[in-house]
Amino acid sequence: MESIDGALIGREPEQEVLSGFVTAAGGRALVLRGDTGVGKSALLDHVTNLALGKEHRVIRATGVEAESELPFAGLHQLLYPLFPCIDQLDDSHRRVFDVVFGGGEGAPPSVMALGIAVLDLLSLTASHNPLLLVLDDGQWFDTSSIEVCGFVGRRLSGGSVRLLVGLRSDVPSGFDTAALPQLPVTTLSEKASEQLLDMRNPGLDPRIRRLILDEAQGNPLALLELPPHVMRGGRGLAASNREELPGYTGTGIPLPLRLQHVYGARIGSLGDAVRTELLRGALDGVGAGTATGHARDTRYRMVDADEAAACGLLDMDPLSGDFVFRHPLVRSTVVQTATAGQRRAAHAVLAHVHRKDVERRAIHLAASAVDPDEQVAAALEAAADSATLRGASLAAVSWLTRAAELSEGHEERSRRLGDAAFVAGQAGLLDRAQQLVRSDTASGMSESPAAVLTSAYVALYEDGDVWSTRRQVLAAIENIRDSGAREPNEVLTRLVNLLLAISQYASDKTSWERTHELLGSLGGLVSPHSRIYQDAWGDVVRRGTGVHERVERALAGLRTLEPWEITRLGVAAYHVDTLSQYRPHLQRTVDREVETGAVASGMTMLHLVMLDQMAVGEWDEAERTGQRTLDLTASHDYALFVHHTRGYLGLLAAMRGRTERARELQAAVDTWARPRGVGFLTQIADAIGTTAALTEGDYEAAYLHAIGITPPGTFAPYAHQASRTLLDLVEAALHTGRTEQARRHALAARRAGLPAVSPRLALVTYGALAMTATDPTEADDMYHRAETHPAAAFFPFESARIRLAHGIRLRHAQGRKAARHSLTLAAEAFERLGTSPWAERARAELRATGASTPTSTAHLATLTWQERRIADLAAGGLTNKEIGARMHLSPRTVGSHLYRVFPKLGITSRAALRDALGNIPDEQNV
Fold first, then answer.
1. What is the Cα–Cα distance from 534 to 556, expressed in whole angstroms?
2. Among candidates 771, 750, 764, 756, which has minimal Cα distance to 796?
3. Which of 6, 110, 163, 746 could bond to 768 as cystine, CB 3.0-4.6 Å?
4. Mean pLDDT throughout 544-554?
5. pLDDT digits (tens, 9 = 90+) for 447-477
6. CB within 8 Å of 575: residues ≥ 6 apart
7. Count of alpha carbons within 13 angstroms of residue 838, beta-carbon side
8. Is the pTM of this model over 0.85?
9. Distance between terminal CA atoms of the chain?
């Protein structure tokens, strides 16, 4: 914009950087950021010309504000010219593009999957000529497209593809956090502004010249556009003061408004028919500038608008021949200078143009309506449903809110406001949700069920309030029941599901029994899905049989389920250990939900992904997922989910042997959850303590933590960790001489029918029975069942622990050679998992069989002072009782310390202590 005959004024530093951008070896990305009209488009044109001179292929696109809520609309525009090349990609990448752009079946791909496919397409295109992608007004790109562009932009090095993005600095966008290099484009200096103005408009009256310089404040677009406008105002060089210049009062109007006035004067001079065409194009997001690549059949095509082109408001797209706006400000001014009636009329026409597109038709219908209109409200509601299913819950909230405004009756208005509040809560907009329900109750009515739902939801997830929320929700459900409800309805189902979630987090027997009683009284008013949650979330030991099959049937129609339904069923699948088969869909879905959809559901999806990664042994990935979830939950102030995430991170740390970190997280979770009565999390805290102690070989502490979850020989009702710590309690009991308690617990698992509840519970039940069996035949049979169970491959940590126990038993019962195979498999599994203490324990047992195994010296941790003192005394021949007397410890505690010392030193018996202590490097001696 600040160019004269192709030369840019005052942009020498930027030109130098951009020249290097085009000529440097390798691909790269760069973001130009500046205020509206500062000259970003001129710099983009400059780079385009440079690249064309270097025989680059150049593709340009421009963000459209009207499309900023339509997922992948921006990416579609950017890649449209490359669509013919998609057929040359491999099948997997073609399918990705078909799902996103072609209406193919399947779940939307993740950012990573789509980003990789885009990189492949760009690489293919650039194999013939270097490729430059130029994106103007990137702030109007939709979030999904920005995510993909950011992903691609960070991975262009080494290729021949360049990405250049222009952004308005006054509009936040996802590019702000895309971690792409940036080049600030500031206003021109006073000297450059004077040079540009004088070159374009020589001979201006000094007073007018000064006025333009003051008003433009270095903005090139204003410097270029204001003088012609002033001259057309009829005052020109004869103007004697500012007050005589039309439209300017000297009051420091913000620059965008001044430019709007400039364009407004031109627009106002057009005929009615031309202004109508411009308005329809502007409201439908017709492009601005020379960007190409729009889908030809999805934008209003302006016709008979040559008059607007003649006065500099429109340009011609060189590829399509269609009119486009000269600049986004023209498009904006067209809309803002139209009357409300004119805009409504234009929207009505556009609704007809897009009559086959449920979302865009509804948007235009809503904008065309003034009075309540049930037909339009229903169309918006359908559009919101469509948006929710494709991960655009943020848009759904706005559309449902507008649907409520257009509802003809109070009942429908209240229902739609409740729906909007519910979706807002799922989208992480808790304040917005509360505002919506308050707007419904402001009419003087008592608190509605939707208001109870929203306030309880906020209290639960923001502060972990399980007691007052339970009372509120129970009362609301009872009121609906007692009012004579005869058929299920959405609000009741949401209240029931929230009550089940509260009960799950409370993990309190009394609460659950009251919940079961209430739901029993509702009969057929409770949905089948809610019945699944009722049985899976509370007590799988007593109610879990058959849940796995019910979950599978419910998730058969996965792609037609709303995101919160998917997550609830996913939680049910976790409780019966069948999550792995659904994880691919969760991973494909979670990114879109986190960015533009139901972010609260996205948080739970991330939990589920992490839990499955932990279960199948992908512990590095689980760590990354957990940290991402922690950042996400903290940024949205979901305190319950923050501590829930910390609990899972603590369990993972405990399994990996990072016990100090595990105990820090355990303390944080317990300190927050216990005073609030969030039993679900206090059980996880106890499970962290159990696992950390087992990993360290402190079996006494492990046993004490485990019986805090459930007593041996039974499974505490509604304690979700009771069955999950089955193997932990049995191992801890055996290692502390409590063989009778261990056996009772294993038998209790069999009596409870745990093998029929889930594959993992079958695996650990057989393992526990094998470990505690006194009959060799029974032990062999149970070990065989465990080790050959189909679930063994999906739960490698539990499987490796069972093999370790089997190997130890074989070494004692059948000799060294018989034990080597099981111990080798256990050691290899622990090594793959990355749990050094368990791996060293298995290696030590393997060495005891005479097998040669490499010792991980990195794991031979420094002994604590107390451990070294006990080891020295034991090496000197003292018994545990004698050592305990000297150190004021119980014999059992001494034994636990020694059991931790042995794997640290790579030994398995007291007899090897003296030599092992002698081999400790001097710097490790205490």
1. 20
2. 764
3. 746
4. 93
5. 788 888 889 999 999 999 999 999 999 999 9
6. 536, 537, 540, 544, 547, 720, 758
7. 32
8. no
9. 74
